[in-house]
Amino acid sequence: MEYETPLFFRVMQYADRADRDVIDMVSGNPDWEPPEALREGLGDYADFEPDRFQYPPSEGLVELREEIAARRNVDVEQVVVTNGAGEANYLAMARALERDRGDEVVLTDPVYPYYPGKTTMLGGRQRFVAADAEGQLDPAAVREVVGEETAAIVVNSPNNPTGAVYPEETIRELVAIAEEYDAVLVSDEVYDHFDLSGRFASALGVDSDHRIVTNAFSKSMAITGFRVGYAIFPPHLVENAKSRHMLVNVAGSRPAQYAVLRGLRETEPDYYERNRELLAERVETFTDALEDAGADYTTPQGSFYVMARFEDYPGTLENVERLIDEAGVAGMPGEAFGDSRADWLRFALVTPRVSAAAERLAAYFDR
């Protein structure tokens, strides 16, 4: 079995080697401050007794799992703290596939590239269903591709790369399809705090044994390097997930989990609201510049990505490298996200230099 290095890393490496100033709009690393309470919790940890520097419970600190369970209105035993949303999705997809209910994983097109990569790694087969021009997913289109071999349906809302936010009726229908075919809906909700539409609906709002919800604090608390995420499993799927987690990771970082717990308990809602407002301002600045440049573009309902299409400039890796060399802006090739957006480029708005990037792109394509 062969694996390819994700294009994210190839683009970032190319940008790092450039002999000019390059604005990074590739990675999803928030550039704003983490919560102050989280910083304080991490600082306090240095003075704890030696026993607090040893292994935590494999499935996560009890207090953190209890806090997550209370906020998500689930039983604490359903919660597994993971090494970011990446491991949470891995565990969820693994549990879906190892039930011997088929080996197909239904994914969207466009798709976050790590989902098909995990499917291959876990021995599954990929099936794709196209989202519409705005990134919305039609449950009727999903129903056309699922069948007896469908183990999982993997969705992401708010969505990377399209910025779509699925309404409650879509989520409910996707859970119903999973129930009908004895599949598992894996709902990745890592951008839930960046809903700009007011329409976000968690799959936890649907009572079902056929859905697993994954999330992380990486984006919402601007701590992608802490690697603290979680998955919420139905009771009959959780024990094997805990065993797999223990075999792969043993446990997660104890001080990182403690700091996140402090952040959850002591951070007021206005922290998240300020960051949403900042993101909304950047979306307006960036899309206004794309409008001036004559580009087609998406206006995200959530997450922090904008896709753009420039005339006669398809979203290939070669063109991304040209943009780095000649415009000093690094984005992601649309072809990385599937066939349907191969003519597009994706830009992450998590840089204070959004205005400068917009000006560079407008000037470059206005030549």
Automatic annotation (TrEMBL):
Cofactor dependency: pyridoxal 5'-phosphate
InterPro entries the UniProt entry points to: Aminotransferase_I/II_large, AspAT/PAT-like, PyrdxlP-dep_Trfase, PyrdxlP-dep_Trfase_major
Matches recorded under Gene3D superfamilies: Type I PLP-dependent aspartate aminotransferase-like (Major domain)
Aminotransferase class I/classII large domain location: 21-352
Keyword Transcription in annotation: no
Alphabetical list of Pfam families matching this protein: Aminotran_1_2 (PF00155)
Key word Endoplasmic reticulum present: no
Secretion signal span: none
Biological process terms in GO annotation: amino acid metabolic process
Assigned keywords, A-Z: Aminotransferase, Pyridoxal phosphate, Transferase
Quaternary structure and interacting proteins, as annotated: Homodimer.
Family designation: Belongs to the class-I pyridoxal-phosphate-dependent aminotransferase family.
Listed name of the protein: Aspartate/tyrosine/aromatic aminotransferase
Native source organism of the sequence: Natronococcus occultus SP4
